[in-house]
Amino acid sequence: MDTSMHHGHVGGLRDELNFRELGGYRTADGRTVKHGVFYRSGALGEATPEELERISDLGLRFVLDLRCQEEADELPDPVISGAEQIRISGCMDADDNEVNLSPSSIYKLLVNPRRKDPDREESIEAAVAEIYSSLAFDSVAYRRLFAEIESANVPLLFHCTAGKDRTGIAAMLILMALGVSDQDMIDDFALTNVYRRSRIEAKLADKPLLSKVDVVEKLIRASEGVLPHFGERVLSEIRQEYGSYQEFLNKELGLDEERLTALRDRYLE
Fold it and tell me: Could you tell me which residue ranges the Tyrosine specific protein phosphatases domain spans (predicted)?
């Protein structure tokens, strides 16, 4: 699929990398997010030498790997010349252990027979909701990301394995801080399904004989892609917990009104 007309497209990179930028989104005050500052992607270890050269040409100064140690060990990040590269897991469990959120791990979690009614769509929805509800709150990884943004250590890239869940929420929070609309935040989140379409379709084609096709399809779309309404759910939970995005950004990420204004003045045009 040709994604060149979709928002955030970066030329010279395969769609499967889910590599894109956040520039160009309009904000409530009529300004626009600057191009060439914030990049998001899946695992960099999947990039070809030519793609890595293209990525290096972006002049990245900071790369945040949101994967757990297990994921990073399986497919280490290549060295990006000129960039500081660190890894902080974007998902932790209640005992503060790193959680593997690769597509294969999510699929295994969703089909875990110990879950109640694992064959029901409602059960899948509940399991995915449980995963997402833990991502936006009390995140060491996202606090570090915003510290680098405030320090103007840009251009920067943040990524996980598929560039969709941990990365997708991180992108939503950046756009939120810059004053982008809810709809554009959700649209950016959902673009994963466009960029990863070939992988989603390949996985669907690999399961033709399974029963309960509707449930299997939802399992695959939730693990290989994203369910857009879960992006909406994250925003809703933020509003329910804090009353407003401003209060969330202040309490969770340390962005009071003065710092938020400075951030917008720096990264909007």
Answer: 140-199
